[in-house]
UniProtKB/TrEMBL annotation:
<feature type="domain" description="N-acetyltransferase">
    <location>
        <begin position="7"/>
        <end position="165"/>
    </location>
</feature>
<dbReference type="InterPro" id="IPR016181">
    <property type="entry name" value="Acyl_CoA_acyltransferase"/>
</dbReference>
<keyword id="KW-0808">Transferase</keyword>
<dbReference type="Pfam" id="PF13302">
    <property type="entry name" value="Acetyltransf_3"/>
</dbReference>
<dbReference type="GO" id="GO:0016747">
    <property type="term" value="F:acyltransferase activity, transferring groups other than amino-acyl groups"/>
</dbReference>
<protein>
    <submittedName>
        <fullName>RimJ/RimL family protein N-acetyltransferase</fullName>
    </submittedName>
</protein>
<dbReference type="InterPro" id="IPR000182">
    <property type="entry name" value="GNAT_dom"/>
</dbReference>
Length: 174
């Protein structure tokens, strides 16, 4: 378990699954995170995702919980490249818990873990240009824009940019 100022990261538990499936099935959430066609996901696939990620060496899924012990979201480190020492990250915080600094705290905890314990050199992510809340959280955590994939995503009748962001261990002060 890894603890920050507002949240802690821990292993996924069986009892987290129903809420995880509920949040990941929410259309509004999917439109902010999923670059595929936002069909409703198959619950069985979502239920098996934590176990699937836990079975590999290139992905790690954490449950995010408040310091009071309430499960509020998930955070993944995936596509780990052990040779070049980088990985991608993704986060999902349940709607009732958004905008309270939980996501930023969770990202900082994961970043410390990735750089100090895993000896990674870089973390990277993509974020849709219209996802302002996520962009603010990533900026607070030190992720810099490394590129813009222009008109990469089609949503609601128009094309949107996707931002590529990265954080180097040498830029991480914590």
């Amino acid at each position: 378990m890894f603890t920050g100022e507002k949240v802690r990261l821990r292993a996924f538990r069986e009892e987290d699954t129903d809420r995880f499936v509920e949040w990941e099935s929410d259309l509004e959430t999917r439109l902010l995170m999923d670059d595929g066609i936002p069909f409703p996901p198959q619950p069985d696939k979502l239920r098996s995702l934590p176990e699937t990620l836990a079975s590999g060496e290139d992905a790690f899924l954490f449950a995010v919980e408040t310091l009071g012990g309430e499960f509020i979201g998930s955070l993944a480190l995936f596509d780990v490249n052990w040779h070049h020492r980088f990985a991608r990250i993704g986060i999902s915080i349940g709607k009732p818990h958004q905008g309270k600094g939980y996501g930023s705290d969770a990202i900082r905890i994961l970043t410390r873990f990735a750089f100090r314990q895993m000896n990674l050199r870089k973390l990277k992510l993509t974020v849709f240009a219209f996802n302002r809340r996520a962009i603010r959280a990533y900026q607070k955590c030190g992720f810099r824009v490394e590129g813009i994939l222009r008109e990469e995503l089609y949503r609601n009748g128009q094309y949107h940019d996707v931002l590529v962001r990265g954080l180097l261990r040498s830029d991480f002060p914590h």
